[in-house]
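Re-run with default settings, no changes from the original entry. Doing this only to confirm the output is reproducible before filing.
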Amino acid sequence: MAKDFRFGIGLVGGGSRSRWQDAVRRAEGFGYDVLQVPDHLGAPAPFPALLSAAEVSSMRLGTYVLNAGFYKPALLARDIAALEKLTDGRVELGLGTGYVKEEFDAAELPFPSAKNRVDYLGHVTSYLREHVPSVPILIAGSGDRVVSLAARQADIIGLTGGRDGSTADDPLAERIEFVRNAAGDRFDQLELNMVITAVPHDGSGIPDLSMTRHYAPTLPDEKLLELPTVLTGTPRDMADKLRHYRDAYGISYISVQKKHAESFSKVIAELR
């Protein structure tokens, strides 16, 4: 049975309390279900931002994603448990390995190898599973080891489209099959999330590819337009594509960033 769609909106807290809360209200008015904040040095701290958002919104509240390498599991579990209680159980915790060496340097933390960062993410996830079991965990990443870890331990998997460098005719189908094999009997209980990186902002049907190009700087526009995370056409065209993703691949949880919030809200309206 197909899962109901859910829609996440990525916002970065900033400026005054009133400005932040106005942005949260606006996002909820567009029809989004989950507020997702990032975890980067230079951006506002995620937990205070989510607590402030909870005062003016009924959306669920998540991180996309916490840098697991910044945290000791017991201290993180304490903060998550407090946030869950103060928001009436609306927290969804997104986790990732962390990938920006300069941020580790600025935090005066060692920057482990990719293998050790994934191992530590697994350690943090296991601890949180035991100590805050009521909080759903999303793990996002593009590498095989991170996706395998998510398939084994997470409730929600944050997909980035196909496998990096894939030459498959259907890279997204290939990725879903990888998840299925790694998850085994857990697969049907998993929720699959994907971040849409490009959406048309006018009636042309042609998306703004600037965010997508940031993640794939060497691909020409015609190849960027073929990526699963890029939507084109009318709101109905985009809604049909997302229905296909759900029916064919099981992807039912769709996230976008603030710059696409208003444009994508028309797609949400088609899918409600």
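The beta strands are 6-10, 34-37, 60-63, 66-67, 91-96, 137-140, 156-159, 191-195, 251-257. The two ends are 17 Å apart (CA to CA).
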